[in-house]
Known about the structure:
Distance between the termini: 23 Å
CATH architecture: 3-Layer(aba) Sandwich
Shape: globular
Number of helices: 5
Low-confidence stretches: 1-5
CATH topology: Aminopeptidase
Radius of gyration: 15 Å
CATH class: Alpha Beta
Helix content: 25-40%
Strand content: 25-35%
Largest sheet: 8 strands, mixed
Order of helices and strands: EEEHHHEEEHEHEEE
Structural class: alpha+beta
Amino acid sequence: MKNKNVMQEISISKIKSYLAVHFNFIINVYTKHNAKEDLEEGRSTFEKFISIEETKTRIRNGSQLYQLTINATEMAGIFEIDDNHLTLLYIIDSMQLSGAGTFCIDAIKIILKNKCTTLSVFASPYSLDFYIKNGFEKRSKNVKLIKGMRYYEMELSL
């Protein structure tokens, strides 16, 4: 994959131990792009959801968390799949619009191959165009507001 005319080596690996570095990565991207769409309650809800304790509990219960790395050293993204639901997908600014997010969606399709027929996501207004571009369709026409968070229910046929 190319990024600003520089060849990047991209890899995905499963996160076995969710650490503060992962939490900080997600909260920084969320704060920059998604937080403005949510109410204060939503920002608190999200921060609790990605907390180390809650995320480790989800992983113990079967959720799969992955890290996108460029050039074997730099964390460029994180995504989480719980059954056939994409609970998180966050990409650093320098890799947004580079195809890194689509690379993650393609990896998820491979991970879920022969296990599920659909992939659902609660897409923030910020990420709506990305999901539409990647073949997701809205399951509801209007934006929803639950626990202070705004999102669209979307689904992709696998």
